[in-house]
Each structure stands twice: as structure tokens, then as C-alpha cells.
Amino acid sequence: METDPLIAKSPARGLKGNSGKPESGLEQIDEEEKDQTDEVGQVTGNFGIWQFWICLSVSMVKWVDAWHHLAIIFLAPVTEFQCAEGDYITSADQCFVINNGTYETCHKWEFDTSIFKQTIISEFGLVCDKNQLPNVVQSASMLGGLVGSMLFGVAADRYGRKKPLIIGVVGQLVAGVAAAFMPTYELLLLFRFITSVAVGGTMAVSCVLCMEVVGGKWRTIVGTLYHIPFNFGHMTLPVIAYFTRSSWRIFEIAISLPSALLLSYCWLTPESPRWLVATGRGEKALPILDQAVRANEREFPADLRESIRRSPAIVKKKPSIFDLYRTPNLRIRIIAAHVNWIICGLIYYGLAQYMGRIGGNIFINVSLSGIIELPGGIFCMYLMDTFGRKKTMVASKLLIAASMLLITQCSSEDENATERIILAFFGVVGISTAFPTLHLFTGELFPTVLRNVAIGSGVMFSLLGSMVSPFVLSLVTFLLLINRFRHSSKYLDFQEKNICAKSKVQKLRRNSNTSGKMLTIYS
How far apart are CA 152 and CA 172, in angstroms? Predict the structure, then answer.
């Protein structure tokens, strides 16, 4: 029987204090569970046709999840607008209008509809003093993913993997479609949050299910390849956005309805036999194992069948995130891991949204960034095996840093943003290598009993980074615009003409004969 490389490389000493003795009984209980669930591996094998179809079908949930995670790029794209309030003047200013010689806040705008006919920005007026509200939608979505991963993680341990997975699929289908019919921004925010709770739950549970049906070296391979459908979702999202650009509501429905296909999990996906055995439900695991034996053309020895049928439930102490800080050795590792997870979450979702604001064709930019992620994620397996985890991680972070710094030095006069797009693609390659490397590296830094907690907490911290990424991106965009306009003679000339025009308006307004009449202004 093959040995799980993650188990073989786990630094189990991390749970031991100065005395060299374990500080809790977690390791012993973990070994008991491993002994029982390894019987499942002896029956099904580490990987075969049975595992292939389960992993393939279950990982498809990541395809739809990618659409929901990145939807804000096309729900709230950068949209040019101008104040269009008043019966007698259209202001050249975006947020203010001149009335009786004074500035007043604008409440009505005209939006550029050359690409997107209707977005949440144009429908709900999310501009000027409300320009951060689209970012709140994205942050609420990331918060929903965080809440969903925790809630569904607890539910998966208590009720199994299959039921929470199906509930999550139903949730993202119903809430996603419902969000498209919300008449107000507040209700849209609520249902986007609910949708993301379900999305976060399906991502967490599907990953656990895939890891539990395979064994040995295949856990490392499947753990990396499992994320590929997310890349396909990233690539295809612009296609959906292009054909539904007439309305954000149609777009929201289009990315939600495919979840109905995932309801086939009710019939196609079995419960995790390892979970059934570990919870004393060995009798229910036998029919599932029989299917695996037939599909993989293996044998099911009578002694193993009887042992699995009689397997007792394992009452174990659940490790918590606080166990990761138990010893100085563990504290250093988990702090370093959490910092890296935050940075990766911030960079990934920041870059994803930046591709929609960088200039050029938004559909091509976003699609190409998804295409570039695919070889990056696969190539990182070769890099990790050749150069090791640490060197691969450091190199990918240096590539990201270099590309981001060089973007700030690019000319702002490049209308097609060619230089910025190319540099951003290098950043995408870096983050697509860093994320799977960090996922595997985190698992190897901690003993088996704490591995799931370490990775789970890491994902939580990456979501925290993704929650602030929209606001960081807005701040950076604002600073770059200031720098661009400050050095733009065209902008200064426009401002000069604008001031002259407003001055003429004020002079003409003082003439009572023109009060309430349409004014034609030439500057």
C-alpha cells in the first residue's frame, strides 16, 4: 500500500513541547481513525475509474463557483458617466451641478452604454458619494464565502459530505437567480451574500470529498488538479458577460442557472465511505464500496468487509485553530502561512478585478488572464518537484512584485494599455503558481491531525485578503488617475475651458431676462 507523501513528510514534532511528549491525545486518535479509514483505501485502491468520475463530477462545482466569485467584474465594470440634472444645463462635472451660481450635488447621471447597457452602477446610481458600494458587494461576497466554508465545514463533519454539498448547490441556484430580481441595492447585497455562503460551502465540501475518495500520491495530484475547473470558469465568464451585456440581471441568471445541472449529484455522487466508516456507519459504506470494487475491478475480502461493517464510531477531540499556536515552532509556521494566504487572496482577486479596469477590451483581458492561469497551475507541480516548495513560492512572489511595480511605471498615454496588460499577465502567472504551492506547502508544514485546520484557516485568511482587495484597488486606481491627470496637458486645458464655461453661466444667471430659459454656451 502506498504511503501518503503528506503524512510521510509531516513534521509531527510540531505538536510536542520541550519534554518531547505530545501535549494532547490528538495524535493517538488520529492514528486510530487512519487505521480504520485505510481499510477503505485497501478496498477501493488509491485511484481508479471510480475515483476519477467522482473527482471529475464533484470538481465541476468549482466552474460555477468561479462565475459567482468573479461576477463583480461584469456586474460593476468601470463606466463613464456625467451629471445630467436640471432643465436648462447639463454639467460637465460628474458629481455636481451649478444652480443659482452655487454647486449642488448631482442626483441624475447619464452613463456610457456603448459596451454594457445596464449594470448595477447605472441602475442603482453607485457613483460619486456611493462609488464604494460596488466594492461592498464584492467584500460581502467574500465574507459570505468565509461564513459558508465554516458553516458547511461543521455540517459536513456532522451530517456527511453529500447532503451539505447538495444543499449548497440548491442555495447558490435559488439565491443566485433571486438576486437578479432584487429591486434595490440593499436586497441585491443580501442575496449576493447568501449566494456566496452557498458557494463557499460547496467549495469547501467538494474539496474534502475529492480528497477522501483518493489515497497515496493521488491526494497531492488531485489536490492540484481539483482547481482547474475554476480556471475554466474564469475563462468562460467573459463569454457569458459578452452575450448578456444588455442587462446585469440576465447575466446574473445566466451564471446561476447552470447550478441546476449540479443537482445530478443527488444520483451520481456517493457519500464519502471514509466518513461513514469513521462515524460508525460501516454498514452504509458497504454498498458504496461494492460499486468502487466493481468499477476498479478489485476484490473485497470477506475479513475487510466484516471489519468495516463492525467499525465503531471514533469519538475524537476536534483540533482547533488555537492548537496551531501551541508551540513556538508551530506559531512561527502558522503566522508565516497566514500572512502568505492574506497576500495571495489580496493579489488574486485584486488582479482579477484590475483586468477589468486596465484598459483595452475587458472581455479579452479577463478571458486571457483565466487562460494564463491554467498552465501556471499545472507548471507549478513541475517547479515544486524540481526546485522545492520554498523556492517556487519565493520566485512566484518576486515575479508578482516585479510585475506590479513595473505597472506603476507604465505610460498613462497608452490607450490600448498594452504594456500594463502584458505586465499584469506576468502577475497572473505568478499568483497562479503561488496559490497551489501555498496550499500544498501549508499541508506539509503541519502534522496530519492539524493539517485540515491549518489549510482551512489559511483559506479563511485568503478570503480576508480578498475582502479588502476591492478597496485597495480603488485606492490605487484613484492615485494613478491623480498622477495621470496631473501630467496631462489635455486635462488642464479641459479644466480651463470648464471653468470659463461655468463663469459664463454665473454671469448669464444674473440677468433676470434669461431666468428659467434655455441657455446656449460657447467656450
Answer: 13
The answer to whether 300 and 43 have CB atoms below 8 angstroms apart is yes
Please tell me the distance from the alpha carbon of residue 92 to that of residue 35, in angstroms, as a whole number: 73
CB environment 384-411: b (16+ within 10 A), e (fewer): beeeebeebbebbbebbeebbebbeebe
Q: Which CATH superfamily is domain 34-79+116-316 in?
A: MFS general substrate transporter like domains (1.20.1250.20)
| Nearest 10 degrees: Cα torsion 103, 107, 108, 114 | 100
Q: Which helix (H) or strand (E) element contains residue 82?
A: strand 81-83
Strands 96-99 and 81-83, sheet pairing: unpaired
Q: For residue 153, how far is the Cα from the chain centroid?
A: 17
Cell reading at 187: 436586497
CATH number for the domain whose boundaries are 318-487: 1.20.1250.20
Tens-binned pLDDT, residue by residue, of the chain (523 aa): 333 333 333 333 334 443 344 444 444 444 444 545 578 888 888 899 999 999 999 999 999 999 998 998 899 888 888 877 654 444 445 777 776 667 777 778 888 888 899 999 888 888 887 888 888 888 888 889 888 888 888 888 888 889 999 999 999 999 999 999 999 999 999 999 999 999 988 988 888 888 888 888 888 788 778 888 998 999 999 999 999 999 999 999 999 999 999 999 888 899 988 888 888 888 888 999 999 999 988 888 888 888 888 877 765 667 777 888 888 888 888 898 889 998 888 888 888 777 777 777 889 888 888 888 887 777 887 888 788 888 888 988 899 889 888 877 776 555 557 788 888 888 888 888 888 888 878 877 877 667 777 877 888 888 888 888 777 766 655 555 455 444 444 433 444 444 344 444 344 344 444 444 433 333 3
**What distance in Å separates the CA atoms of residue 334 and residue 457, rounded to the nearest whole number?**
9
- Output the nine-digit C-alpha cell for 359: 484598459
**What gap in Å lies between CA 334 and CA 356, rounded to an integer?**
34
DSSP code at position 129: G
Neighbouring CB atoms inside 10 A of 91's CB total 22
Cβ pair 234, 372 in contact under 8 A = no
330, 17 contact by CB (below 8 A): no
pTM over 0.70: yes
CATH 1.20.1250.20 maps onto the chain at 34-79+116-316, 318-487
CB-CB neighbours of 457 under 10 Å: 19
Q: Quick one: DSSP state of residue 95?
A: S
Crossing angle for the helix pair 162-179 and 248-256, to the nearest 10 degrees? 160
In the block, residue with C-alpha cell 475487510 = 304
